[in-house]
Amino acid sequence: MFDQVSTNYDRTNSLLSAGNDAFWRRATVRAVSPRTGDHILDLAAGTGTSSAALAKTGAHVVAADFSPGMIEVGRRQQAGNANVEFMVADGMALPFSDSEFDAVTISFGLRNIVDPHVALAELYRVTKPGGRIVICEFSTPPFSLVRAAYFFYLNRFMPFMVRFASSNAEAYDYLGDSIKAWPNQQILATWMREAGFTQVAHRNLTLGIVALHRGVKPLHGGSITIDGAPNAVEAPAAPAAPAAPAPLDSPVDTVEEPVGK
Ligand SMILES: C[S@@+](CC[C@H](N)C(=O)[O-])C[C@H]1O[C@@H](n2cnc3c(N)ncnc32)[C@H](O)[C@@H]1O
Predict the structure, then answer these.
(1) In this structure, is residue 162 part of a structural domain?
(2) What is residue 246's DSSP assignment?
(3) Does 41 map to a domain?
(4) How many whole angstroms from 57 Cα to the centroid of ligand 1?
């Protein structure tokens, strides 16, 4: 399905989000706070628009996606950008070693992965102890009026618009359905904790239509099985500096958890 929409994917996104996608991506980059020399995984990277923004600070970004069509468009768009490396990869079986990345991030992708719990466990595995995760995903507006207006948009207006904007309207029908079926901010935060991440917090963007979640892999974490039961204790690969929680910029919507829980 993603192969079929890859050509006009970025343009359709901007149209359907009324330009808000650029703001969501900037907020994601700020939350990841990439540093020169960081090794970052952008999973379900699509055409690599977020990956390129992350790489601007001099970080090396692996843009991984299981759609060859998306990766091909990304490679063309980012030709000559040595800081972005495109790779076809499945988020449920990542082809990376344990503790390889300083930060991992996924934008509008976790919802599309068949088993998001498996993907979270994989993201945890490949993150260095002390490393950070940032998830940008559609979510549930907490205010009922906003929620009603948004669901009206998803049910009535968006299907109408995509028939003009995209050659594959069915793919975008799936988008609305998957957003409505996706868990709210608190449930996603719980899933992240179950995968092993600590200091989990979220910030709502655009009245909660999108939420930015972040967390940290603890310095002395255990590796976690999919059902959340601790598996074996993993020694840190190398001494890592204590992670500063990624900035979310707004204290209002965040839900903090004590470090080390
Ligand atoms: C809505 S797009 C998001 C793309 C990009 N992150 C963005 O922000 O524009 C969702 C992406 O998830 C990818 N995807 C779905 N399941 C995947 C999986 N198991 N492993 C890797 N990528 C996956 C799709 O190929 C698609 O490119």
Answers:
(1) no
(2) P
(3) yes
(4) 23
Shortest CA distance to 89 belongs to which of 123, 128, 58?
123
Q: Is 196 in the pocket of ligand 1 (CB under 6 A)?
A: no
Chain centroid to Cα 53, Å, comes to 14
Global confidence as pTM: 0.84
Weakest-pLDDT range from 15-19, 45-49, 57-61, 101-105:
15-19
Buried/exposed code over 61-79 (b: 16+ C-beta within 10 A; e: otherwise): bbbbbbbebbbbbbbeebe
What percent helix, strand, coil does the chain show, rounded to 5? 40, 20, 40
CA of 105 to the centre of ligand 1 (A): 12
Q: What is the pLDDT of residues 50-97, one digit of tens each?
A: 999 999 999 999 999 999 999 999 999 999 999 999 999 999 999 999
Does any ligand 1 atom lie closer than 6 A to the CB of residue 105? no
Closest protein CA for atom 27 of ligand 1: 46
The tens digit of pLDDT for each residue in 183-201 reads 999 999 999 999 999 999 9
Task: Establish whether residue 2 lines the binding site of ligand 1, counting it when its CB lies within 6 angstroms of any ligand atom.
Answer: yes
CATH number, domain of 11, equals: 3.40.50.150
Residue-range definition of the domain harbouring residue 25 = 2-144+182-233
* Number of independent structural domains in the chain: 1
Q: What pLDDT score was predicted for residue 62?
A: 98
32 near 103, Cβ under 8 Å? yes
Atom of ligand 1 nearest to the CA of 67: 25
